[in-house]
């Protein structure tokens, strides 16, 4: 491993905290947050990071790589300061996601899973963000930018390129960098977890309509187990 002594010491201290969250003898359960921890330092799942996890959790490098290549949140090459994901799944696409993608890709000058020359932006086409009620959606370092248009998405890219803060629709007031958010995903809070709304009116509208109309969920009716009833009848 080529980590400096200071970086290695910080990784070891953080790894110890992560492992302590799990019962004794189950340190391998720390693998997923450990991968995020490595990305918070290196910006991707680096060879050095894999070596560190292997030594710390006593896991084969091949097993770590298998997990890292299974989940799309883990990157196998350096990621930009801002990971910009444009949803082009069905609903976002028909609501304008495809047009947003084309214009953003042209402006940044890269395609999906590619990074700008200055290292500022990595672009990717992403599948459903579970935010269909706000389509079309763009995510930056996993933070939501709802109800986007080509114009608003391009303005956001302008802000990133100019070094200005960008502001998610929900969540933290200012979008963190990729490495900063990876540390949060590793389980280390950054003090911004209670900023901004977590759900907007579009998400809660069904509940509001139900309350206004006095609708409630149906009462569950207990159904007898037919097998039990049959056995009971036979016993009689």
Number of strands: 5
**CATH fold label of the domain at 82-177:** Glutaredoxin
Number of helices: 9
Give the helices and strands as they follow along the chain.
Answer: HHHHEHEEEEHHHH
- Largest β-sheet summary: 5 strands, mixed
Mean pLDDT: 93
Using the CA coordinates, give the radius of gyration.
23 Å
Name the CATH class of the domain at 82-177. Alpha Beta
How much of the sequence is in beta strands? Answer: 5-15%
Based on Cα principal axes, name the global outline: globular
CATH superfamily of the domain at 82-177: Glutaredoxin
The CATH architecture designation of the domain at 82-177 is: 3-Layer(aba) Sandwich
Tell me about this structure:
The protein has about 240 residues and is α+β, with helices and mostly antiparallel strands. Among the domains are: about 5-70, Arc Repressor Mutant, subunit A (Orthogonal Bundle), CATH 1.10.10; about 80-175, Glutaredoxin, CATH 3.40.30. It is built from 9 helices and 5 strands. It has a 5-stranded mixed beta sheet with strand order 2-3-1-4-5. Helix 5 crosses helix 6. The longest helix has 19 residues, at about 90-110. The model has no long low-confidence stretch (mean pLDDT about 95).
Give the arrangement of secondary structure elements.
Layout: H1 5-19, H2 31-42, H3 47-57, H4 61-70, E1 82-87, H5 90-108, E2 114-115, E3 121-126, E4 138-140, E5 143-145, H6 150-162, H7 178-185, H8 201-213, H9 226-235
Helix pairs in contact: 1-2, 2-3, 2-7, 5-6
